[in-house]
Design goal:
Layout (H helix, E strand, L loop, with lengths): L8 E5 L5 H7 L3 E11 L12 E15 L2 H10 L4 E3 L2 E4 L14 H12 L7 H6 L1 H16 L15 E11 L3 E9 L10 E7 L3 E8 L4 E8 L1 H6 L5 E4 L1 E4 L6 H13 L6 E3 L14 E7 L8 E4 L8 E7 H9 L6 H22 L2
Parallel strand pairs: 1-5, 9-14
Antiparallel strand pairs: 1-3, 2-3, 4-5, 6-7, 7-8, 9-10, 9-12, 10-11, 10-16, 13-14, 15-16
Helix pairs in contact: 1-3, 3-5, 8-9
Length: 361
C-alpha cells in the first residue's frame, strides 16, 4: 500500500466528523462549517453509500484535522476520495444513497473502523475493501455481544485474564472467514493450559423464525439446497429449515426475522416469541442464533416456490404443514436442521400459550 504520508490538513464531514469516529481514527481537530445539507448515507462506514452534500440553506459541521496513518489507511480501505468544496478537500461524502445518516449510528461505525484498522487480527487491506459489509456485520456482532449478559450457572465468572491470545490471523476471508488463533487459558485447577492452536469459522449472527398459525395449528417451513450435506457426502442436499438469515449491521435480531419472513416466504408476521439464543457449534464456529416463533395467519398462503433473494443465489420453496407432522418429522429424522428440531420441541411446549394469547385470554 502506497499512501501519501505528508500529514496534510483536510476536512472531515458527516459520519467521519462524529466524536466516535474521530476517536477511532485517533485524530483531533477544529470545528468549522460548510454551506448546504447532508442527505442519505445511513449505512456509511458499514458497506453502504456515504452522505451527499447538497446546495441550499443550512450549514453542515465539519472538522479540520491533520491526517495520520490510521486516517489515511481508513480512507484507502473504504475508497473515500476527496470532494472539492470551495477549494478544500473534504472527506466523508458520497452519492447519498439510502436513508439519512443518524448520529446514533456513530458507535457501530466506529466499532467497524476499529475492526478495519485492528492490529490484533492480521488482515490485508485488499481483503477488507472487498468485504466492508461483511466486516461491519462482524463488528455489529461484537458490539451486540458486549451488551448482552452471558450465562453464569455452574461456570467460571467472566474474566478476560483467564484467556491469553498469543496470535490471531485471518487465514481466509470472503463471504465468511476463518481465523487462526493461538491461545492459552486458565485450567480449572488454576494452572495454564499449553498454547493451543485453533481455527474458528467467523460468521455474523443469524435470526431464525418458525411461523405458526394457532388457528390452523400449522407451521410454515422452507426448503433449499445446502452445501453442508454435499460436503459430507450425503445424497440428499435439500433440507427443511426455519426461515433464517444473517442480522445486518445496525439491525435488531427481531427486525431481521421480520425482514427474512418477507424475503424467504412472502409473509408478514405478527407477534414474536423469542426463544433462547445460542451457539449451534461453539467448538469451531462463532455463529450465534436468535430463534423466534411468530404468530401468523396462514389461511391465505399455500405451499409454493420462487422465494429468496436472487442475487444471493437463493432458491426457496415454502411448505405449510400441521404442527403434529412437524413433530413427527423431527422425531423420525426427516428434519436434519438442528435448530428446527429444537424450535419444533419448543413450539410443542408453547402452542397452548400462543393460542391463548391470540384468543385474548
Amino acid at each position: 500500500m502506497n499512501l501519501d504520508a505528508t500529514g496534510r490538513e483536510i476536512l472531515l464531514v458527516g459520519p467521519l466528523a462524529s466524536a466516535e469516529m474521530m476517536a477511532a481514527l485517533g485524530v483531533t481537530g477544529h470545528p468549522t462549517t460548510l454551506p448546504g445539507t447532508l442527505h442519505g448515507g445511513a449505512d456509511a462506514g458499514l458497506g453502504g453509500d456515504w452522505p451527499a452534500l447538497r446546495d441550499g440553506p443550512g450549514e453542515v459541521v465539519a472538522m479540520r484535522v491533520q491526517e495520520n496513518d490510521d486516517l489515511r489507511r481508513y480512507l484507502h480501505i473504504t475508497g473515500l476520495s476527496p470532494v472539492d468544496v470551495d477549494g478544500q478537500p473534504v472527506f466523508g461524502l458520497g452519492k447519498g444513497g439510502g436513508d439519512d445518516w443518524q448520529d446514533n449510528a456513530a458507535p457501530l461505525m466506529a466499532r467497524a473502523a476499529d475492526m478495519l484498522l485492528s492490529r490484533g487480527i492480521e488482515r490485508s487491506d485488499q481483503s477488507s475493501t472487498a468485504r466492508l459489509r461483511r466486516l461491519a456485520e462482524i463488528a455489529a456482532v461484537r458490539h451486540r455481544a458486549e451488551s448482552e449478559a452471558g450465562p453464569a450457572a455452574h461456570l467460571p465468572a467472566p474474566d478476560g485474564d483467564r484467556v491469553e491470545v498469543r496470535h490471531r490471523r485471518e487465514a481466509y476471508g470472503r463471504y465468511f472467514s476463518v481465523e487462526e488463533i493461538a491461545l492459552r487459558h486458565r485450567r480449572y485447577d488454576g494452572g495454564w493450559s499449553p498454547v493451543l492452536e485453533r481455527e474458528v469459522f467467523i460468521s455474523a449472527d443469524a435470526s431464525l423464525l418458525l411461523p405458526y398459525d394457532p388457528v390452523l395449528d400449522c407451521v410454515l417451513l422452507i426448503s433449499q439446497f445446502r452445501i453442508g450435506p454435499l460436503a459430507r457426502g450425503q445424497a440428499q442436499c435439500w433440507m427443511l429449515e426455519p426461515v433464517a438469515g444473517r442480522v445486518d449491521a445496525g439491525e435488531a435480531p427481531a427486525d431481521a426475522a421480520r425482514r427474512e419472513a418477507v424475503e424467504e416466504a412472502g409473509l408478514d408476521i405478527g407477534r414474536l416469541y423469542a426463544l433462547p439464543a445460542h451457539y449451534p457449534t461453539p467448538g469451531a464456529n462463532s455463529e450465534y442464533y436468535y430463534p423466534f416463533i411468530a404468530a401468523v395467519d396462514l389461511s391465505e398462503h399455500e405451499t409454493g416456490q420462487g422465494f429468496g433473494v436472487a442475487d444471493e443465489g437463493e432458491d426457496i420453496a415454502t411448505h405449510i404443514i400441521p404442527r403434529a407432522e412437524l413433530l413427527h418429522l423431527a422425531e423420525t429424522g426427516q428434519i436434519q436442521c438442528g435448530p428446527l428440531i429444537t424450535m419444533a420441541l419448543m413450539l410443542d411446549r408453547m402452542a397452548e400459550r400462543i393460542r391463548a394469547d391470540m384468543a385474548g385470554t
